[in-house]
Design goal:
This protein is of the alpha/beta class. Helix 1 runs parallel beside helix 2 and helix 7 runs parallel beside helix 9. The protein is globular and about 50 Å long. It binds zinc ion (ZN). Zinc ion binds next to loops.
Length: 272
């Protein structure tokens, strides 16, 4: 992509007493100068025959970017074949629904280690990802916020290197929480971007999908999301590193105050 887009996860908070749906949410976000929305398919796929046209038309009219977050009920390291099939089905259903509204990236958490070693888990997840059909939507594997959940930076980057239709979704807040507060200064952000460039090439830095918010965490990783100003997340160092590495793509803000924090980042980015 030739730009870095800023957006939010789901429907905006907007004006009090106004209720939004995807279409009116897109219009609202465009009106405040944001560019993207990630449709939360986390509990169900909520692009239906009833709303798909309105969402697609509004997206096109506003030159807006759409991605989607896939189901939370996915484990590509499940022991039972039935659970694996259900997981694959949920991922593909999300991809097909996103395609109907011309969205690009379906983001999901690939699975859990359960009783397996990281190596066994990696190999199982890799084999199962290769069973997915390619619908022309990018499958984006997300870095996860808990050490029990598969998805360290290294695991995600390595899978994306091995499987052609997989791309990373780098959740910087998850990386921070997973390692009990590891992103302390500029160099910590720069190192991640350096690693992605080295392993996936400059083209990956020019087409990144990023999740970010303030985050509350402990020794077991992520607890809950926070507004940036109520957290220890170094969003200024983060933005500076994105500029220095000339990162393009899309940043989805998952803070509880959604569009306010997304605008905080966008305004900072534009001012640097
Ligand atoms: Zn996620």
């Amino acid at each position: 992509m030739d730009k870095l887009l800023f957006g939010i996860s789901g429907i905006p908070i907007g004006y009090p007493s106004t209720k939004y749906n995807y279409a009116t949410g897109i219009e609202f976000l465009k009106g405040i100068n944001l560019d993207a929305m990630e449709l939360p398919f986390v509990r169900s796929v909520n692009i239906t025959d009833k709303n798909k046209e309105a969402v697609l038309n509004t997206k096109k009219a506003n030159d807006f970017y759409l991605s989607a977050h896939g189901s939370y009920y996915i484990n590509l390291n499940a022991a039972e074949e039935e659970k694996l099939e259900k997981s694959l089905e949920r991922i593909e259903k999300g991809a097909l629904a996103l395609k109907k509204v011309e969205g690009r990236s379906l983001i999901f958490h690939p699975g859990y280690y359960l009783q397996d070693t990281p190596e066994t888990t990696y190999n199982n997840i890799k084999a199962n990802l290769q069973r997915l059909s390619d619908f022309g939507v990018d499958y984006r594997l997300e870095t996860t916020g808990k050490p029990t959940q598969f998805g360290s930076l290294e695991e995600i980057v390595s899978l994306c290197k091995e499987i052609e239709f997989c791309e990373p979704c780098i959740d910087f807040s998850h990386i921070h929480a997973r390692n009990n507060g590891s992103l302390k200064e500029y160099d910590d952000f720069a190192r991640i971007l350096e690693y992605i460039g080295e392993n996936l090439g400059d083209k990956a830095l020019k087409d990144m999908h990023i999740h970010v918010s303030g985050i509350n965490y402990g020794i077991k990783g992520e607890k809950n999301h926070l507004p940036f100003l109520e957290s220890d997340f170094k969003y200024d160092a983060f933005i500076k590193a994105l500029i220095d590495y000339d990162v393009k793509g899309c940043i989805i803000c998952e803070s509880p105050i959604l569009e306010k924090d997304s605008l905080l980042l966008k305004n900072l980015y534009d001012s640097m």
